[in-house]
Amino acid sequence: MLERVHEIPGVLLDAEEYLDDFWPRYRTVDGVVWKLQRVQAFPAAAPVSEDDWRRSLGLVGEGPARPFPGRRVRVVERPVTSYLRWEMHLLALRTPPAEQVRVLDAAEVSDLEGRRRLPELVVLGTAVMYEVTYDSAGVHSGARRIDALDVVDACRGELEKLFALGEDLRDYYEREIAPGTTA
């Protein structure tokens, strides 16, 4: 189902509409908040150049407390981009962790990716899912809200399976990210 999300009917929301729709639902979530992240870099991302680690790490702060569990599946390609190095630092240095994060090598999802990469998804409990969208330049443009409960349920089940296959973020970080970091 994950590989077909882009074909599922949904409500198209621009970036502002997405946030207006997302936050009220987020505050009343009825279960786990799931994220599937596949994009490897963003054009307007935080300062993540290899030469600017001190500044980049200075941006890492405590995440907001969550009244419900969060789980993230992060797909990573090699070589790891500067953006992903920064993101991994952000996620690994949060204390306490705002969510459980598991990392999958892109090869582990290749069977799900025919002509398209897996989508960027946010699933809020059991009620709604957003396919986060980007324009041709890679800039966030909004989302498609999918309300079909059978689709939300099927995607949540597939995310649970991917999560179980993934490696714990801290183990991945210590092995793949921390040794290459300059500070």
TrEMBL record:
Protein's organism: Nonomuraea maritima
Protein name: DUF6879 domain-containing protein
Domain of life of the source: Bacteria
Residue ranges constituting the DUF6879 domain according to the UniProt record: 38-173
Short name of any one Pfam family annotated for the protein: DUF6879
